[in-house]
Amino acid sequence: MSIVLILGSAPNVTAVKDWPKSLFTKILAINNAWLVRPDWDAAIYAWDFPLKNRPTPEGDQRIIEEDCFVPVQNDYGGFVYSGGTMAFTAGYFALGHYKPKVLAFMGCDMVYTNMLKTHFYGVGTADPLREDITLRDLEAKSVRLQVMGARQGCAVVNLSHDPSRLTFPCAELDSLGQTKPDSFNENLVTKALELERNLGYYTPSGRYWEDESRFNTDKIDELDKLWSHIKTRE
Asked: Which own/partner contact pairs does 92-96 have at CB distance under 8 Å and 24+ positions apart?
């Protein structure tokens, strides 16, 4: 059973310090999350991640930057449809590169109620809260990622039990190996994917903000609404 753990920077991510590495095939750390535990397998960050915060890989550890993750995310439809924040980018990269049976998130809830400690290291910039045409509906983008995972036989789950913008089912650490992907209304999935193709909001470079003038927010909202109806949080 191939299980990939994705680490974000929410305060609750520190819980993973004591989790046995043997439970996971790979650990993929987003941005500063590589600081949480030293045995990460890959660290992923965008082009503008500060140089001073970047890790130095050791042994088989790998750095994942734009040249690696943009082509993979494009294989799943591109950034406008999948969401231009690193939690979703890491998810799509893991689906395409590692092809796991279980994709588990921790520290990626994207809820910022305590602005005195937004991240495990203190106060950080809440990337998903910025004004961005691809992040108007985080729940819809979350559903889309889970659906894409299910279509390739991967269960996408959240190991956090805190309030979350992720719509993935919550999972328990000791039963990850028994986790199966949810079923979805394939007719609605087909309709959503057809709408994406018809809109043609594809940006090969991944830098969708450089081409933002051709994107219609009403159409994106229509698409997000469609994805949201495919699955609602139970």
From this structure: 92/145, 92/148, 93/28, 93/44, 93/64, 93/68, 93/69, 94/4, 94/6, 94/26, 94/28, 95/145, 95/148, 95/149, 95/152, 95/154, 96/72
Q: How many domains does the chain have?
A: 1
pLDDT digits (tens, 9 = 90+) for 173-232: 999 989 999 989 889 999 999 999 999 998 888 888 888 888 999 999 999 999 998 864
Q: Residue 47: which of 27, 72, 65, 25 has the closest Cα?
A: 65
Residue 64, domain extent: 3-230
Residues 133 and 220 sit within 8 Å (Cβ to Cβ): yes
Phi and psi at 7, nearest 5°, equal -110, 125
Question: Of all helices (H) and strands (E), which one includes residue 222?
Answer: helix 217-230
70, 205 contact by CB (below 8 A): yes
